[in-house]
Amino acid sequence: MTAFPDAPRLTWKLSDLSETDLTVRTAWSGGVDRLWRTGTARGAGVRVCVLDSGVEPDHPEVGPLDGAFAVDTGPGGEPRIVKDVLGDTCGHGTACAGIIRQLAPDCELVSVRVLGGDFSGTGDALLAGLRWAVRERFDVINISLSTTRQAFAQGLRQLADEAYFGGTLLVAAAHNSRVESFPWRFSSVISVGSHGEADPLHLLYNPTPPVEFFARGIDVPAPWLGGTNRRCTGNSFATPHVAGLCALLHSSHRGLTPFQVKSLLHLGAANVSATPDSAPESAVPGRPDDRNGIR
Amino acid sequence: MECPVCATRDHPAAAQFCAVCGTRLISSVDVPDSRRVITALFADLVGSTALGERLDPEPLRQVMVRFYTLMRDCLERHGGTVEKFIGDAVMAVFGVPRVHEDDALRAVRAAWDMRQALMGLNAELGDELGIEPGTERGAGLTAPLRLRIGVNTGEVLSAGMPGVGQSLVSGDTVNIAARLEQHAPVGEILLGPDTHRALRGRAVSEPADPLVVKGKSRPLQAWRLLDLVSDPSAVPRAQTPLVGRRIELGRLELAWEQTTATAAPHLFTLLGEAGIGKSRLAAEFTRAAAERGAAVAVARCQPYGDGGTAAVLAEVVRQLLGAGPGTEDAAPPPSAGSHSPAVRALTDRLLSGERDAVSPADFGTVGLLLSAVARQRPVVLVLDDLQWAQPTLLDLVDHLIDTGRGSRLMMVCVSRLDLLDTRPQWGSGKLSATTLAVPPLAPDDCRRLVEAIGEVLLHGDSPAVERVTAVSEGNPLFAEQMAALLADGGGTEDLPPTVQALLAARLDRLSPAERDLLGRGSVVGRQFTVPDLTALGGPPPASGGAPYAAPLAALLRRRLIEPTEPPDDGTYRFTQLLVREVAYGSLPKRLRAAWHEALADWFRSGGAAPDIVGTHLAEAYRCLRDLGGAASRRQALAGRAVDRLHEAGAAALARGECSWAVELLRRTAALQDELAAEGSPVADAPQIRVRLAEALITVGDRAAARELLEPAAAGEPDPRVRAHARLHLAQLDAGSKPRELPRTAAEVLAVFTAAGDLLGITRARLCLAQVSQRDGRYAESARSFEKALALGRRAGVELEQATALGGLATALWLGPAPVLQAVEECRRLLPAHDAGRRTVRAAVGCPLAVLHAMRRDFDAARALLAEAEQIVTELGVIAPMAAIHTFAGLVESLAGRTAQAEDRLRQAGELSWLAGDADTWTMAGTWTADLWLQGGRADDAEAWTERTPPGDASGVSPVTRSGFMALRARLLSARGRPEDAEQAAREALHLASRTDSLSCLATAHLAGAGAALAAGRREEALTRAADAERAYRDKGDQVGAGWVRRFREEAEAS
Predict the structure, then answer these.
(1) Active site includes A278?
(2) Which of A7, B592, B672, B769 is most buried as measured by Cβ atoms within 10 A of its Cβ?
(3) Between chains, do A3 and B241 touch, taking CB under 8 Å as contact?
(4) Which residue has the higher pLDDT, A202 or B128?
(5) A294 interaction partners in chain B (CB closer than 8 Å)
(6) What pLDDT, on a 0 to 100 scale, did the predictor assign at position B239?
(7) Average pLDDT over residues A198-214
(8) Residue B601 to residue B597: CA distance in whole angstroms
């Protein structure tokens, strides 16, 4: 009769795992390293949607958006998608968009605001926003939020499945605590938790899901409201790192399916190595981060 | 003494009545004024004039008397106090003299009843006087009498005692209630915004047109009352999951198993403060029990009104014999027929709603009924809010448990701790009983609850979630109410009216001495000592015993306060922050101001830290400002507050407690802004702003610092302040405008010298030393750092001394001093200046680590770096992390641990990229590419070196640029492009010769040697290798010397 059944085999947090747990061997020996994964890609031509609290227009660290929409209430009380005029209501969406930009500077970014203030998001708005984004066939949708309400689980699951087979990747933040919520809990999305490394490209694969990948999510420098920036912590900010990586993969290898992208992320994760006898690969293999000079 | 009604002051001390209005004067010692949240109700009778035209004055008088009586009955039944009847209007207050936790709901229920009662009166008038009755709310144009009602909740000052015939509450709240009544359509009830908020879930209402109220800048939102939710237990709580509570559920389950296994009735009492989650816990348990086949009944006692023992039992009977909890069907259920005649008679009486249906004589019958049900299946009976139960009900529970042997009956009694005031022995002496105090949720559970309140939750750190979690302190109701308030657009500092009412009612039940103690303590803060309380003067504590001993003991028993750790040092703290806030909020601001000022003096005389004194002075000022009145006195207080806070902030900054310094200086700046807004600016204002900017720079908030510095650098009249601002700005801009920094530093040095500003001189010197260091003139920079260090010691500024020592150590590492001598120098610096200053250990330790690595003592190097890393992490300073990673990368690459080196350098590159630190970024990248080249990954290294080399204006030092060019030369040599390699090596050497860094020179020579060898000029290669070797040897760099040896062997072998 307890609310949260024990599920010792399932991992929510990176801290649940030991070094041994984290060492993953795979029969694949194709050598998917960062070079293959991203090359010199900058995300050009990839359409990324940030389903969140909105994105501040023209924040210097986010740059111009390719569209900003919001879920509104229509005359009959039904949710509908309208052009957004409010920007960001709390800073969270701007931070997510900025992190995606850091990784994939040339991708197309579209914001869909499904939240009001800190506490005022509704499940109906989330469903409406996600439905719209899935039908718009974005390449990647970043979802750094969730709902604990079972009432919305079925609708979200259908949309996640529709996206998966329609070629749209949903990258969803796991709950920060050991709490069941949606849509990150579905197998058709890529779910993301946090690690504390400062490397934005450092990715860990979790051999015992529900959380499938860990990315940088502690003290992440990110843009915030009013043209400012701050250090953000939470799975919310690990998720756009993976969304950005997915955008890079898409731009360097056109036509990847969500299944393929997930496999590539797994094979390129820092804790996954090819043969049982070899030592794990160093944290992030491959070439240096080639950005054209500092200024 | 001040008149409670007309506020006339300066009465003679012995005066009994006000000289102006005649009101009885009350000594403030006897009955202290208090601020409290009340609900005011105004009702106006419509139609009496028309009635007056048709009735003789005598029957009209009778009608009005009946009207007054009816209205008074309705109001008093719900606990309201009728303040006055004015002609056809009535004004009442809920919350005076006693505050109830549900005053708003009581007022609205009274308003609803008043309207119903008037319908009854109309019907009677129709019969008696031949006036056609109409309906109150219907089309009833014919209704002779109707009401307009306004209800509003808010804060008032409540003065003196009730019953002196004058309004004793005053404030905007009452005026707004009157406005609401005037704007209410005939027959309607209009609610003010806080009343509406306090009713959450208990009433149905819709927004009415906002009211424009005189003197209010914004229209007032009003709500039209449509209906009341009759059964409070049916109020839907937020559908949040049950969080935590494993232990409590386990205990309930265990008792349940025992009850069903042994067939002995069990009394399970859940005790706890309001909102802690007792009912939610009971509901979770009964749900599970019902799933396992138990018969379940849940009934709730009411604080007042018709919900007596009979009503509670009737609800139990309805559920046990009917369809289950919440059924509204009052008809006797068919299954009652199978019971004995006595049981049938009792259930009939109960279900027909007889108010006096239960007496001790019926206890046996109730027992028969329960055991009859329990024979078929086990029974769980939940009695909620038992603190409001009538004695009969409590006796009945006793009886059922004592006599119910053989019954599979578990009674779950849910109550606040008040139950123990009336029944201290509750639950004792029973054969099978459990009493469980429900504790607050653990912080993590509470956070999860707060997060789960919204339908959709963001997965980032939310200040709002943190604030609600912290303030609600594990009370789920408080958390839900605060979250709901936030969702309605309230601020994170606002207290929800429901929570305020709950706590105010709890405090209102305390004795005057206990309330007085809490009030005094609340002004001190969350923690206080008895001497703090007595420092406030006022009435002497009760005779005999230690001061405040009796109220302290009472409050400790009530868990309103608790001793701090260690328990016997005489310090107490409010158990809940919100209790402190409500106690503080109930004090008149006049009193708060006086007490804050007294505390400032008390703490100052006791040698307390200046921030504590300053904070009390600032609060005294703010209270006095809200009250209006003479400005000069309060501004003098504020001036003192600014001085103390500024002093505290500056001291914190000097100690390197950077975040705390930012907090204190922000408060100082805010207070000074408030004073400026009053037209009384502080003389120190510009210094405060510049010092705040300094603190902001140390914590990495460069943008905010710039915002403060730019106006000061441009327009500040005081040349010293202007110079400080300019110097800070030049340092912020050093990356993009490297040539500006030395010029500005020289200019401001002249200003500081003329003004004798020792701190300024230290900083300007430090800046010039950093410029020499950046340009690679290390010997010169070392001399400048020495000077700055001496100045810093004279000025007593620690942060500057630490910076100078760090610079000195870097000069020893990179400059011409031989390694052994440099290590000795660093070792000398540490104890001489360390004195426990961890910033110094970190600043000197990093370069020293590389020096150790150069002489192959890698363990010593790693230990120093680990310590530096720990210090920086603990101080919460982000900026030096990139440097530490760079140093660690250098150490590991000198040690030949390639993977570790690469990892550290990658992190250094990432952090310096984000910080815009081009020099560190280039250095980290160069070393990484070097590792690749050595590791056979020439392609990767080449890709990196093919970028445009950093130029003169790039902010990259010549040492780093030389290193970059040397690497490129080696790569080109390896690629078989000797001419390009030689070109690059020449550039490297040219840059190195502009510096006095031996290491840099050696690297450039070695690159040149490699290029010569690649071009086939072996002799020249060996000569140049010898140059490199000489430089490495002069420096004492054993690792570098090893590289040369290897090169020579390769060259000779080729």
Answers:
(1) no
(2) B769
(3) yes
(4) A202
(5) 913, 916, 918, 921-922, 954
(6) 57
(7) 89
(8) 7
- For A:154-193, CB contacts with B below 8 A are 173-177, 179, 181
Pairs of CB atoms within 8 A across A/B: 155
Q: Which of B387, B375, B325, B320 is nearest to B350 (CA)?
A: B320
Q: What angle (nearest 5°) sits at the alpha carbon of residue B295, between those of residues B291 and B300?
A: 105
Residue in A92, A241, A250, A266 annotated catalytic:
A92
Contacting residues for A71 by C-beta, under 8 A, at least 6 apart: A79, A80, A81, A82, A112, A113, A114, A125, A128, A129, A132
What letter would DSSP give residue B334? G
- The CB-based long-range contact list for A76-85 (8 Å cut-off, 24+ gap) reads A79/A124, A79/A125, A79/A127, A79/A128, A80/A128, A81/A112, A81/A128, A81/A129, A81/A132, A84/A54, A84/A111, A84/A112, A84/A113
**pLDDT at res. B140:** 38
Please indicate whether, in this complex, the C-beta atoms of B459 and A284 are within 8 angstroms of each other.
Answer: no
**Above pLDDT 90, what percent of chain B?**
33
Whether the CB-CB separation of B886 and B846 falls below 8 Å is answered with: no
- pTM for this one? 0.68
Helix, strand, or coil (residue B984): helix
Nearest chain B alpha carbon to A95: B460
In angstroms, the separation between the Cα of residue B903 and the nearest Cα of chain A is 7
Q: Which of A51, A294, A295 to mutate to test the interface with B (most CBs of B within 10 A)?
A: A294
A284 vs B1009 pLDDT, higher one: B1009
Residues of chain A contacting residue B940, judged by C-beta atoms under 8 Å apart: 286-288
DSSP secondary structure string for all residues of B747-810: HHHHHHHHHT-HHHHHHHHHHHHHHHHHTT-HHHHHHHHHHHHHHHHHHT-HHHHHHHHHHHHH
Residue of B592 and B232 predicted with greater confidence: B592
Distance between A228 CA and the closest CA of chain B, angstroms: 8
Token match 């912080």: residue? B443
Do A192 and A174 touch, CB atoms closer than 8 A?
A: yes
User: Could you tell me if B457 and A181 are in contact, meaning their C-beta atoms sit under 8 angstroms apart?
Assistant: yes
A278: contact with B, CB 8 A cutoff: no
Give yes or no for a cis peptide into B566 (omega within 30° of 0). yes
Give yes or no for residue B190 having a pLDDT over 90.
Answer: yes
A92 is catalytic: yes
3-state helix, strand, coil in chain A (%, to 5): 30, 20, 50
What backbone phi and psi angles, to 5 degrees, belong to B717? -70, -35
Say how many residues make up chain A: 295
Of A119, A146, A147, the CB nearest to B487: A119
Q: How far apart are CA B979 and CA A110, in angstroms?
A: 50
Whether A17 contacts chain B with CB within 8 A: no
Burial class of residue B372 in the structure, from the number of CB atoms within 10 Å of its CB (0-12 exposed, 13-18 middle, 19+ buried): middle
Tell whether A126 lies on the interface with B, counting CB pairs under 8 A. yes
CB contact under 8 A, A119 and B454: yes
Residue A126's pLDDT band (cuts 50, 70, 90): very high
What pLDDT, on the 0 to 100 scale, is given for residue A172?
97
Q: How far apart are CA B995 and CA B823, in angstroms?
A: 21
Across the interface, whether the CB atoms of B909 and A289 are under 8 A apart is answered yes
Q: Which of B797, B815, B813 is nearest to B761 (CA)?
A: B797
Residues of B in contact with A152 (CB under 8 A): 455
Nearest to A123 by CA among A103, A147, A143, A155: A147
Q: Are strands B561-563 and B571-574 parallel, antiparallel or unpaired?
A: antiparallel
Q: Could you report the predicted ipTM of this complex, rounded to two decimals?
A: 0.84
Rounded to whole angstroms, how far apart are CA atoms B320 and B297? Answer: 6
Angle CA B889–B895–B897, to nearest 5: 70
CB atoms A175 and B460 under 8 Å: no
Contacts of B878 in chain A (CB under 8 A): 219, 231
DSSP B308: S
